[in-house]
Design goal:
With 226 residues, the protein is mostly helical. It has one domain. The protein is built from 10 helices and no strands. The protein is globular, with a radius of gyration of 18 Å. The mean pLDDT is 82. InterPro entries: UreH-like_TM_dom. Keywords: Membrane, Transmembrane, Transmembrane helix.
């Protein structure tokens, strides 16, 4: 796996934290704030295990798609297949940059791809509520990790071209680690964090960084065709 892909995936999670708060912040806040009988440290253990479960799902998804694509490319013997996929991943990075910079919101439309699966697995998450112990938060997070999310699906395009299952898992784990600061601080510094993430200079600067990396990756992929 290219090391820069690991950092790119981490950056997607970190810079896309505003979207993460919108998608998962409510349930994370409910985990910590909805337990008045628990001490602060006990509440935080729920949040830690919930996020550990969420990251586990990301890693599993990355391993599955990374291994599957690498296997198909190997069996087909088409060496250019991964280059086409990497070009597609670069395009997804560009779309993410446009989303984070608030120039175009089209990337959220791909969330519809996972809605059918989510309808089947979401009842399992609801059956675990209310969470009776921190250990129940882990399987809850595992299920919640499959929530349809444009950022997750976009990062999966990078896991697909990682080269093997282990590298695909690492790409998605890096993405998950990038989301952790926002998800762990929610309910503790939620309002301050939202204010920082909504800063237009921060958004535009972050978007331009991702856009530059996406364009560079696409250029490298196209150059390798010649």
């Amino acid at each position: 796996m290219v090391t820069s892909d690991f950092f790119a995936a981490f950056a997607i999670g970190l810079l896309g934290a505003g979207h993460c708060l919108g998608m998962c912040g409510g349930i994370a806040a409910a985990i910590t704030m909805g337990m008045p009988g628990q001490r602060q440290g006990q509440r935080f253990s729920f949040l830690i295990l919930y996020n550990a479960g969420r990251l586990a799902s990301y890693a599993i998804a990355g391993a599955l798609i990374g291994g599957a694509v690498a296997g198909m490319a190997s069996l087909s013997g088409i060496s250019s297949a991964l280059l086409y996929l990497r070009l597609g991943a670069a395009l997804m990075m560009i779309l993410l940059a446009l989303y984070i910079g608030q120039w175009w919101q089209g990337v959220t439309k791909i969330e519809i791809l996972g809605q059918s699966l989510w309808r089947h697995i979401s009842p399992f998450a609801k059956s675990l509520l209310p969470l009776k112990s921190p250990f129940a938060a882990f399987p809850f997070g595992v299920i919640w990790g499959w929530l349809p999310c444009g950022l997750v699906y976009s990062t999966l395009s990078w896991a697909a071209v990682a080269g093997n299952a282990a590298s695909g898992a690492m790409v998605m784990l890096a993405f998950g680690l990038g989301t952790l600061p926002a998800m762990l601080l929610v309910g503790v510094m939620a309002e301050r964090l939202k204010h920082w993430l909504s800063n237009q200079l921060f958004k535009k600067t972050s978007a331009l960084m991702l856009l530059s990396y996406g364009l560079h990756t696409g250029y490298v992929a196209i150059a390798q065709f010649s």
